[in-house]
């Protein structure tokens, strides 16, 4: 629904603005160019996108999620204080974070939901601190290799699509920290 | 360094997986085929959004919006040209990809704006969708402070994207 509003506002604004500024000819040309560039873009990023997806599948099958999960467990135990002794929830949370780090969104969601269900049981169906933290952490992106964006950049003719990695890591870390801090602060004042 | 990164990642992943007795070629092809279905899913979105954003740009509305908001956003260090991306990011993943793709194509992938758009895309998530999936799955109706805290993370992500690209690329 949000997308319908967004798209209609964009289309209406272009038509009105085009009429007012007398640039209707350019707007008309932009329709054809825009639609075609959607397809061109898809094709030009297809190779790298598929290749990266393949590499991620190779990493997934080699058991990297499990290895990472074990590494993350001690850190997450400190973060999710309500569940320090709940082995099942902590395991699911760490598998969720491990899969997110590797960019395996499809694998991360089932682990995350499993963790959320375990937490909701303890909280009796309310949004307790741990559950909110889990959701906030999943709305922040912690993917180490942003493969779709990299494919997008190489499709646009970029020779070094991964040169943004340090900036992405810095930004992800800052954004995740802000989310966790905000959750901790709001937890005290929000009924 | 970035010349080495991709080949090393590919080679490293292949050798690591082969040593753990993974059928590397089969995994590679399975993943790639999932990539194709992902493309098949995002292609219609990209067509619709690139059309709309191209129209918006050609009509001059995008320039107008950027100029009107330049003082407020500029004070925060946020490029006003990227406002459409920041607005759509929390609502739709493929929508953000479409808008981001148009911006990257319009300004160039190695420009300050193109890089910042890419960093924003790569370091934030589809907040509202994620919140709906998780709270929906456990049947919790009142999400309390989850959305404000998540939006706080998004806003930080946008600001730090703009600042870090400026810092790291001296753009």
What does this molecule look like?
The complex is a heterodimer of chains A (191) and B (171). With 191 residues, chain A is an all-alpha fold. In chain A, 80% of the residues lie in helices and 0% in strands. Chain A has one domain (44-189). Chain A is built from 8 helices and no strands. Chain A is globular, with a radius of gyration of 21 Å. Chain B is built from 8 helices and no strands. Chain B is globular, with a radius of gyration of 19 Å. Chain B has 171 residues and is mainly α. In chain B, 81% of the residues lie in helices and 0% in strands. The interface between A and B is large, with 97 and 103 residues.
Topology:
The complex is a heterodimer of chains A (191) and B (171).
Chain A: H1 2-21, H2 24-61, H3 64-79, H4 87-101, H5 105-123, H6 129-139, H7 147-155, H8 165-189
Chain B: H1 2-19, H2 24-59, H3 61-76, H4 83-88, H5 93-107, H6 112-123, H7 127-138, H8 146-169
Count of helix runs of chain B: 8
Q: Kindly state the mean pLDDT of chain A as a whole number?
A: 93
State the order of secondary-structure elements of chain B, H for helix, E for strand: HHHHHHHH
The profile of the biggest β sheet of chain A is:
none
Report Rg of chain A: 21 Å
User: By helix and strand content of chain B, what is the structural category?
Assistant: mainly alpha
**Whole-number tally of structural domains of chain B:** 1
Number of helices of chain A: 8
| Biggest interface between chains | A-B, 97 and 103 residues
Oligomeric state of the chains in view: heterodimer
- Principal-axis shape of chain B equals globular
Q: What is the rounded distance between the termini of chain A?
A: 29 Å
Tally of discrete structural domains of chain A: 1
């Amino acid at each position: 629904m949000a997308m319908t509003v967004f798209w209609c506002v964009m289309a209406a604004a272009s038509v009105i603005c085009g009429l007012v500024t007398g640039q209707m000819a350019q707007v008309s040309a932009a329709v054809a160019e825009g639609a075609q560039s959607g397809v061109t873009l898809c094709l030009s990023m297809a190779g790298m996108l598929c290749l990266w997806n393949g590499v991620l599948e190779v990493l997934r099958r080699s058991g990297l999620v499990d290895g990472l999960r074990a590494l993350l467990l001690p850190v997450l135990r400190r973060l999710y204080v309500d569940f320090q002794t709940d082995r099942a929830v902590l395991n699911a949370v760490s598998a969720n974070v491990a899969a997110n780090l590797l960019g395996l969104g499809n694998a991360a969601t089932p682990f995350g939901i499993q963790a959320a269900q375990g937490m909701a049981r303890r909280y009796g169906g309310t949004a307790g601190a741990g559950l909110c933290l889990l959701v906030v952490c999943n709305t922040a992106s912690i993917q180490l290799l942003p493969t779709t964006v990299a494919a997008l950049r190489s499709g646009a003719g970029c020779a070094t699509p991964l040169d943004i990695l340090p900036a992405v890591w810095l930004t992800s870390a800052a954004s995740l920290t802000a989310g966790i801090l905000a959750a901790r602060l709001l937890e005290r004042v929000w009924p | 360094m970035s010349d080495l990164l991709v080949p090393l990642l590919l080679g490293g992943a292949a050798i690591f997986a082969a040593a753990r007795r993974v059928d590397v070629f089969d995994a590679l092809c399975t993943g790639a085929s999932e990539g194709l279905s992902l493309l098949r899913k995002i292609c219609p979105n990209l067509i619709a959004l690139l059309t709309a954003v191209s129209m918006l740009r050609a009509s001059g509305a995008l320039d107008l919006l950027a100029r009107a908001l330049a003082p407020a956003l500029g004070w925060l260090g946020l490029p006003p040209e990227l406002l459409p991306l920041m607005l759509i990011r929390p609502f739709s993943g493929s929508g953000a990809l479409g808008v981001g793709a148009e911006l990257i194509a319009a300004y160039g992938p190695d420009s300050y704006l193109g890089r910042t758009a890419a960093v924003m895309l790569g370091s934030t998530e589809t907040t509202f969708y994620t919140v709906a999936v998780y709270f929906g799955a456990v049947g919790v109706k009142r999400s309390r402070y989850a959305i404000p805290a998540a939006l706080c993370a998004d806003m930080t992500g946008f600001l730090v994207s703009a600042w870090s690209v400026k810092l790291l690329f001296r753009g």
